[in-house]
Design a protein that fits this description.
Elements lengths: L6 H20 L19 H10 L6 E2 L1 H6 L2 E3 L6 E11 L6 E3 L15 E13 L3 E3 L18 H11 L3 E4 L8 E4 L4 E4 L5 H16 L2 H4 L7 H21 L5 H12 L4 H4 L2 H11 L8 E5 L6 E5 L10
Parallel strand pairs: 7-9
Antiparallel strand pairs: 1-5, 2-6, 3-4, 3-5, 8-9, 10-11
Helix pairs in contact: 1-7, 1-8, 1-10, 4-5, 5-7, 7-8, 7-10
């Protein structure tokens, strides 16, 4: 009799499924449909949005030369780039007083936490609007909101974890284009009340992932650094993908394009966070029974399946 995979192996396999889907998307013609306008996925800081608007108010899709090249497009000869600011950051190492810069050189602050990427100044980089490039067409597309019901009990399970984390949960209107959000200052999570149960529970899993992955402390520059925000979004949606897929849902139509956009054409950004994603997702799954079996709701039939998982456990929830 074949040995059943352990829980960690199964969750890692689900994450690999997401990575493969994104990588296939990036390296296929379908990736072109996943480039988003900044208004839909605001990956640029408010300052850079103002810089772009001041220099090229008609810009709709902007990116660096590498990004355009990866999408099969080339910047037209003689075009002038749009100047924006990129943060110069370093990561302090365990050796006292030693640091490494990720972009430019710089002297770290004496009290910089070990292992934390800390910004120190900015440098000018140049991006180009799609109208300044030529090549493969880039039709707009968006993650598709999920339809249907959620697995029985999954919302209640995730809602309890949100409350255990010290946050209040509510349903209600959200800003345009946003399905939910987490306010760490008010200790509040909100999920849109006009989406299907399937979309609502997926969004709740995403917001819970932000909390349990400690994005507020791990990415203090989230609101100002597009790369920090991108990494946080990649992790949160990847964790949500594992949770919902493990529960029998199919969220590819939403999660794959969402993660693809924030990965900016670089699947390595997803692959490199596998340990973080799988570890946190494992802690957020519904409780296992005394035999190490995890109850998985079948969203298609409404029945309950038992997936035998390994007795191994990760540490307590963060």
């Amino acid at each position: 009799m074949a040995e059943r995979p352990s829980s960690q192996e199964r969750l890692a396999a689900i994450h690999t499924q997401l990575v493969d889907a994104v990588e296939n998307l990036v390296h296929s013609d379908a990736w072109a449909t996943m480039l988003r306008v900044a208004a839909r996925f605001p990956t640029y800081s408010p300052s850079n949005v103002l810089l772009i608007a001041a220099q090229r108010p008609d810009a709709t899709r902007v990116g660096g030369i590498r990004m355009w090249n990866s999408l099969g497009r080339r910047v037209n000869k003689g075009e002038h780039g749009i100047a924006i600011l990129a943060p110069c950051v370093y990561r302090r190492t365990e050796e006292a007083g030693e640091s490494h810069t990720a972009t430019n050189d710089g002297t770290p602050a004496d009290d910089a936490p070990v292992g934390v990427r800390v910004p120190r100044g900015f440098r000018v980089v140049h991006v180009f609007d799609v109208t300044q490039t030529d090549g493969d067409p880039l039709p707009d597309a968006a993650p598709t909101l999920l339809e249907g019901e959620a697995p029985p009990g999954l919302w209640d399970h995730l809602a309890a974890l949100v409350q255990d984390s010290g946050y209040d949960l509510e349903r209600g209107p959200c800003p345009s284009g946003v399905n939910g959000y987490t306010d760490p200052c008010a200790r509040q999570v909100r999920v849109r009340d006009d989406v299907t149960p399937a979309q609502g529970v997926k969004t709740l899993a995403h917001e819970l992932a932000h909390i349990r992955a400690e994005h507020t402390s791990r990415f203090p520059q989230y609101a100002r650094d597009a790369r920090c925000r991108g990494q946080a979004e990649i992790e949160a949606e990847s964790i949500a993908y594992i949770i919902t897929t493990n529960a029998g849902m199919s969220t590819d139509s939403y999660s794959v394009p969402y993660v693809s956009v924030w990965a900016a054409g670089d699947p390595a950004r997803i692959r490199n966070c596998v340990t973080q994603v799988v570890t946190i997702a494992r802690r957020l799954l519904p409780d296992t029974d005394s035999n190490g079996a995890s109850v998985r709701a079948n969203s298609a039939s409404g029945t309950i399946d038992l997936l035998h998982l390994s007795q191994s456990r990760f540490g307590p929830s963060a």
